[in-house]
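Appendix C reproduces, verbatim, an entry submitted by the partner laboratory led by Prof. M.T., so that reviewers can inspect both the input and the predicted structure.
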Amino acid sequence: MAKNENGKADIVPADNAEVTGTGVVAPDAFTNPGLPPHRPRITDLDPKAAKRAERVVYGLFYFSIAASVFAVWAYMFVPIEPENVHSVRMNTLYLGLGIAFSLLAIGIAAVHWGKALMADKEAIDHRHPVRGTEETRARAVEIFRESDEESGFSRRTLIRNGLIGALIAFPLPAIALFRGLAPMDVDPNNELKHTMWKKGLRLTRDPQGTPIKASDLTIGSAFQVIPEGLVDLPEHEMLNAKAKAAVLLVRLKKEDLNWTSKERESWSYDGIVAYSKICTHVGCPVALYEQQTHHLLCPCHQSQFDIANECAVIFGPAARPLPQLPITVDDEGYLIARSDFTEPVGPSFWERAK
């Protein structure tokens, strides 16, 4: 028997009880009373009540469909006006109500279906740790058939069709929302393939917008640059353009740069190279430059790119190198773009060329 620190028993055995370890097994333990008697529901006794419950269930399912359609309608036709907070609130309110009522109606209908119409006979399911015999497996299939009969899933067509319709309609608002993440009237792939960069456009410091000369860069230096004129755009347009056109400008020794072709070599100027700052994994800004190893690090998921080897991926989940911006200098010695990027910037799942 277990004892405490004073040497006294922690557990006192009952009279004439069997003691096993530190537990007490009473000799007069009650027997298993079994399941309580089955109490029929009103829907079991009254066909009219069952019919009313059925109408409630499929009515809720069809209401869920209507709520899903309403959410899609609110998202598409309740306008959000710039600088109008009230319009944002109304759009969010209607969209949220539609989605909430759609899901709520499915939940209430499923619960009411189970409580009022499905068979409620109590049963015990004995578990077994190994694969059952063929007879047991055949019995399992038969149980599915019995469950279908008891629930009325095949027989109650209005409920079944209402459930299927509600489950099909419920994801529609999400599909509409996801589609809205991209511009509605343009091809996202085309949008990411073309940025503000163009032939002759000067590279300028971010965020001042002052042009950069090749002589401003020393070996090992790195600058974040933006296209000339970007800072003059309206704020919303400026942010959208900068999200695609941000570039990291780095100067290395010419002998440290390895090129796969003469064309790629011509995209640099005297050891100065320019690469997109947008990671090709999920679009985070590649911001950490290791001067000694010539590596760029994305802080989001630790993708690493080797500037000395055309920004090839050397570690992490990024699927392709950072796109390179072809550059040269103008007559005044300022760095300019020779063209736009030759491939889409940003995450690789938008890239269609590979």
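Residues 1-5, 9-20 have pLDDT under 50 and may be disordered. Additional entries are available on request from the coordinating office.
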